[in-house]
Every structure is written in structure tokens, then in C-alpha cells.
Amino acid sequence: MPLTLGPLLLDAGIDHATALVMRHAYVREHEDSGLQGIHADSTDAEILQYTRTQSSDTRRFPLDPPRVWVVFIREGGDQARLWSVVENRGEVASDGILRTFDVVQSEHMADLRGRLVIGWKSPRTWRMSGTAAAKYPVMGIADAEPIPFPGFDRLVLSHAQLQAVMREHRYAAWRTALASVLGIYLITDTSDGRHYVGKADGEESVRQRWSAYATNGHGGNVELRGLDPSNFRFSLLRVFDPATPKRDIELAESHFKEALGTRRHGLNRN
């Protein structure tokens, strides 16, 4: 039995009955409204802006659209490639002709962005319910394009992003880089701003240490158990060569705990 979109939506935690699926087509300018469309060189920001503007005509767009929108881009006459999943946070403006919504990109199906291609058997239909789209066939899932490692001093990862880095093929270069160093890292609980300073020393590389956080959220740290890892942000404060004496790393860890006040005001107990 051929694979359809439905199981992929469910696997991503998207309920068919509460999702909207749409397909954008490349068009420089809409004849009916004069609004600028999107094209092959449009940025994600431009596509997001295009997505958030919809018709006030309820025959063209639902009066009360759902929270989750799964957005594809037309590819050929009868196919569509996944651009992104966005979260609709509600309507913010309307002039009677166009409505503007507060939409943000979601991490749902992030590993399939630009890779998932489905058949789109209704070429004149540009949006439908998730239940209807769930029956559409999957035509292919391309290999993920490698993502270049941005550098140790530019890493800021949510827990979901950390899990992707530790799991997905496109982040292979990141795992290699993180496996090559020891270091002092910072975990920030964005729900209240508290910090936790930790270290990857001679026994574990940064990759090994962060892999534990990706797996269970707390990495074995008592201070982090019971907290919601979806609020965590991971970054590196300093990296060391693997030959660095363990004592030097311990001193650096103690310095950052003191500098950031994580024993008294944060999540470190010692």
C-alpha cells in the first residue's frame, strides 16, 4: 500500500481534523489584487509574509482557520513540495478585502522541509482540510541537504533543535565538530531565565554530553529533573582541546558559575 501524507502528519503530532493544508504557486503578482506573489528565489521570510495574508472572502479562506497550517509549494502540475508548517496565532488585521494573521514557523515536520513531495491531484485547489490532504500520495522524500556548522560561538539550540542535530544526517558536520572538543556549556530555562552551567571534560566530549540531554532532557542532572526541556536553550561558553587537563576545565566551569550567579540565582547546586 503506497505511503500517503496522513501517517507523516500523525507522526509529527498533527491531527488531520484540526489542520489546514495549502499549496502556494509561483506568481510574481496576483492579477486580482495586485499583491506581490512568490517566486523561486523568495526567502523564507517572504514566503511567511505571503502566507500570513489571506482573502477576507470566506469562500476563498475559512472564517475561523485552524491553528496548524501545512504549507507546500507547487512543483509541476500535479505535485507539491513541503515548505514548512506554521502556527496560526490569530487574525491581527483586516481591511475587508485582505486579512492578516500572526503566523510563525513551527518545528513540526522540520526534518522534512524541502524534502517531502506529495501528489496534488486537484491542480485548481490551493487549500484543503488536513483530512482531505491526508489521502494524497507521497511521491518522494529527498536526501537532506547538509547544513554547514556555524561555529562554536554561534550555537544557540532549542531542545527540539538539539535532538535534530543529534539525529539527522544533515547535521553530520555538527556532530563531528562537537565530538572534537571539550567545553563549558550553558543551559537557559526560557520560562524563567535561570541558567545552568555544565561541563564536558576528559570523560565526555560536548557531543556525548549533549546527546544525553537530547535523549532525556536532563542529562542526568538532578537540578534539571522535573523541568520542561522544551524551554531549554543550549549554548557554549568556552571550548577546549581534548588534551586540556581536567583541572583547567573545572576551574573554567567554576568561574562561569560565579560570573553568572548560577549557584545562588540559577540551577546549579554546587
TrEMBL record:
<dbReference type="InterPro" id="IPR000305">
    <property type="entry name" value="GIY-YIG_endonuc"/>
</dbReference>
<feature type="domain" description="GIY-YIG">
    <location>
        <begin position="180"/>
        <end position="269"/>
    </location>
</feature>
<protein>
    <submittedName>
        <fullName>GIY-YIG nuclease family protein</fullName>
    </submittedName>
</protein>
<dbReference type="InterPro" id="IPR035901">
    <property type="entry name" value="GIY-YIG_endonuc_sf"/>
</dbReference>
